[in-house]
Specification:
The structure holds two protein chains of two kinds.
Chain A (H helix, E strand, L loop, with lengths): L5 E10 L9 E8 L4 E6 L5 H8 L7 E8 L4 E2 L6 H7 E4 L11 H6 L9 H10 L15 H15 L5 E5 L7 H16 L3 E5 L3 H7 L2 E6 L2 E7 H4 L2 H8 L1 H11 L7
Parallel strand pairs in A: 3-8, 3-9, 6-7, 7-8
Antiparallel strand pairs in A: 1-2, 1-4, 4-5, 9-10
Helix pairs in contact in A: 4-5, 9-10
Chain B lengths: L4 H24 E6 L2 E6 L4 H32 L11 H18 L11 H19 E2 L2 E2 L1 H25 L2 H11 L9 H20 L1 H7 L3 H7 L3 H23 L5 H13 L3 H23 L11 H18 L8
Antiparallel strand pairs in B: 1-2, 3-4
The chains are: A alpha/beta, B mainly alpha.
Chain lengths: ~260, ~325
Amino acid sequence: MVVTGTRVILSQASFAPTPRSETVLEGVDAKAEPGRITVVVGANAVGKTTMLRSVAGLLRLRSGRIVLEGDDGVSVEAHRLPPRARAARIALLSQRVRLPAGFGVEESVGMGRHALPRNPRRVRDAIERFALGDLRFRSVETLSVGQQQRVGLARTLAQHEPGGVMLLDEPFAALDLRETARAVAVLRGVAAAGGTVLASVHDLGLAARFGNDVWLLDRGRLVAAGEVAEVLNRPRLEEVFGSEAIALAGLAGGVSEAFE
Amino acid sequence: MVRPYRRRLAALAMLLAIAVFAAGLRFLIGREWGESGWRIEFAWPAEGIAGFRIGAISVAATVGAALGLSGLLLQTLLRNPLASPFVLGLSSGATLGLAIAMLASVVVGLGFAEGLGSIVPAFAGAIATLGVVSLAGRRREGLDPLTLVLAGVVISSLCGALLMLVNHLLPPGARGDLVAWTMGRIDEQPEIPLLSATAVGCIAGIGLGMAGATRLDVALLGEDEARSIGVPLGALRWSMLLGAGLLAACAVALAGPIAFVGLVAPHLGRILVGSGHRLLVPASAVAGAALLLVADLARQPIDFGAGRLPIGVLTALVGGPVFLLLLRRGRLEGWS
């Protein structure tokens, strides 16, 4: 049976960025559902990147389990999957997108298909969806930081297989408003097609509008998980980020209603 | 803009043509002893001489290709445009390994310093220095390019000091051989097994590199992204490390330490065929061969009364400024 949806299940998962460093998050129980966008929110250095890397199977957990549960009923741990099978199941966009110099945009996006069956149409489609068509043959080192971020997103999209998991670490950090809106639309499309999208987003207003569900992290633990409207309420956010910060976010971004 | 594939392929063909042309010229140009001393002659060589010239051409092409490939593997492995067997101390390590083997063969009669067996101490020296340099340059977020280069400079100096010690310990009669060899030499009567082994290593390196070209491309991405795309970097890095060490060791065993070819050849290849390894692997090998053939050709008339200029001296004199030019023109930017 072909997997058309994957649920990510964290059970008492404790995370550390390196085998020798201290645990940054402990005892996390949460689920990211297929067909939905789950945003991970929390202060700097709370462990968002460590969590995403662990879900991707690139880091071992200090304790607990993370399983990918397919709608065929089969559960696997990402780090136990062979590299090619993992690439077909999970696509990751790192916080710092690294694009090797000397490659064109099309070549760089095509790298996402390295371990998967060749599919030039999907590569071209990913390029078009992020409005990179005119830049197809440009060397990536000549692009702006925002354009490079879009190349990274397009590469992740080219790698993403239907029913798989897409992990995005601060996918909008370098994008302007128009490109952010475009990326949000593309990622909503991925979720609508049955994909599981799990993304860390530092902008609370954007997180509130982009996500269906949210995991709120604070001081080494998962404070709350659930639908955005339930979790991102003003008292809880003031508790995590402080009332001054929430007031500032409301003023600066015009997003105060999202927190009511 | 990246150039279309056909134009990149044409650039590779042009590079190959330059290498063949340089080899042809080297076959026709030689030094002849005349009444007024040595003079340069441009003519079809006499029967006894042709073999020597073919020997020199074979050594220059093979050593250049080995250095070009080794440099490319190191630059990809470490994601560092400054990496090369010479800059990172591999050549110095291989030289020291061979010098120690030479000392051992003189003092206790171990026969590791000549022929095919000389690859063993050269390889041991190369890998040991690369291990030390990589350890020194390791940071939490990966290998730091600048620290690697600085560590390479320090290790090269250390190897240079130990080389002087070995030279000091050698019997006076053997010292001249070691000093001449450390200046780099294109032997006109090479040891055939050693030359053949190096050539086979180069052909295998080109074949394997082209077959695994997309994996090498992906290895240039960030650690997490490469692994999540499906390239297990651990095994790939070990094979690249061993390949780079072996090729550098073969080159040193054949021709002594030759500077900058391993650094410049991959950059020349990138300028001509781009960064994709499917064409860059053969281009780096051909560029290395062409550079060393041209260098060997250029040194033929340069004689300050003590014989032809050693090839290692010439490549260092030309390669140093080229390296500075690469730095200044920003050709090394966009990495890491």
